[in-house]
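Margin note: ligand = flavin-adenine dinucleotide.
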Amino acid sequence: RRFLQGLGRATLVTLLVSGGTFYYLARRDRSPGAQLPFDPTKKTIVVLGSGWGATSLLKGLDTADYNVIVVSPRNYFLFTPLLPSVAVGTLNPRSILQPTRYLTRFKEREVRVIEAEAKSVDPIKKTITFADDSEIQGLVSSTTIPYDYLVYAVGAETQTFGIPGVKEHALFMKEIHDAERMQRRFLDCIESAAFPGQTDEEKDRLLHIVVVGGGPTGVELSGEVHDWLEEDLRSWYPELAPRIRITLVEALPSVLPMFSKELIQYTESTFRESKIDVLTGTMVKGVTESSVRLKLGKEGDGKGEGREVDVPCGVVVWAAGNTARQISKDLMAQLPDAQTNRRGIAIDDYLRLAGARDAFAIGDCTASSYAPTAQVASQQGAYLARLFKQLAKRDAIEARIAAVQGEGEGGESKVAAVDEEEKKLRKQLDRVKLKPFQYSHQGSLAYIGSDKAIADLPIFGRNWASGGVATYLFWRSAYLSTLFSLRNRTLVASDWLRVKLFGRDTSRE
Ligand code: FAD
Ligand code: NAI
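Resulting structure:
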């Protein structure tokens, strides 16, 4: 009895302490204090973007050294790895968004966050022009500002290869509104299929969802749609659920080319068991309102290879990779000698934008040897924060040297003292070393549906490949801990609990 009483007391104390800590941390996250104002004697960094690269930079940047202005058409950070979960209603959209001000209001010096789209960068005059394209605008909605340093982190847009009908009829999976649109569109298809008198053929069309691109985005989305079907739609639409079909189309011979061979096979076999049709070696050549045109790869006897067929469907999700944004192409065109890579902005080992002064580029907008991933962008952002610290130190010493040189007039002894001081400062300057960026790969993870995930993890210099339910639990905990704030972690965890208890909501707002 005494043991049970002790256990009860210990549990109560633990609950009180953890509840109190949680409350304290949550309150602290909502109570930003006073900040230093902009300082005209400091250099100004203009950051374009509020995604992985920019947010990671802002997190690490010491604003005591700089004035910082952030310009982005979204006033929030989007946690992209969990976007496919929003598309099927597992997560609420706002659970994976973090307003940029929730971060910048906690910096030592005021950071100006401007919700606007950068329209052009002038790397010679060192200015950027941006405009407020939102629904509501004030009297001023476009302006040009100068920068001392530029951090170019505008990401990339979805590659369509100019394939007819993609822009008009397919849905993308890049932004939060893409995920919301996909959920609404598919629910609309289901409700239309349930309309009295619908022919079987039309029901099959409406209930066919085609995902184009067997990269991680397409694979994760297919897995999530499968879970939605099995865990919810089957219960609420029993008459229609057997007709729902998911097809994943990939032009290359296999899905997930960046994962190890065994995990590719594991994913393909899991998809076969889950009744997700995987068409590899098959290229989508066109999209219409009600179909996709496929150029078939090898089938059965190989006779159909190269044949083009129109496949009826209700929803097409286009996840065929990245391409440079127009603003990046325009910027590259201004620096034709240095910017010759059509994939994106060329940078050097210090992430400096090739051909421009005092400009850096990070993340998906760049063309480098790294894959366009959140992991790379966030490491680059963190690196730049450290680099700016070094640059600030260098600038401060150089300013001291200039001041000392100004003092170097007068008697002989004064000149000698000034020389001595300058020597000391130059030595200090030599010690401020700028190290090149080095990427450290932490592994690749992807969710493939049916409570299974795959992971390629570098452990002691070797690759450790794993797939299944345990990897899925690892996937969940890895992403939960990577989310930027306690608020987002709590919201995502409670969404997972909500879905476990009550399932996904099928109402179509
Ligand atoms: P982004 O995060 O895209 O940010 C770009 C920012 O620039 C945005 O804030 C945008 O609004 C802003 N912007 C755009 N145009 C302008 C303009 N003209 N002026 C100013 N600002 C502008 N990677 C992983 O490593 N792991 C994963 O699990 C993973 N999952 C993913 C899932 C999905 C569905 C997707 C789409 C991507 C995923 N990625 C993942 C890739 C990862 O999201 C990107 O590599 C990462 O977002 C790149 O960061 P970034 O800062 O370069 O660009
Ligand atoms: P991706 O570039 O990785 O894959 C796109 C796929 O679409 C390619 O395999 C390509 O062959 C295929 N494709 C292109 N055009 C096609 C067509 N017309 N018909 C059929 N197939 C076509 O793009 P994705 O998946 O959007 O990923 C972008 C980046 O984000 C990658 O670097 C990826 O690693 C990263 N990412 C990482 C995730 C993770 O680690 N879990 C999740 C999602 C994205």
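Residues 121 and 331 are 6 Å apart (CA to CA).
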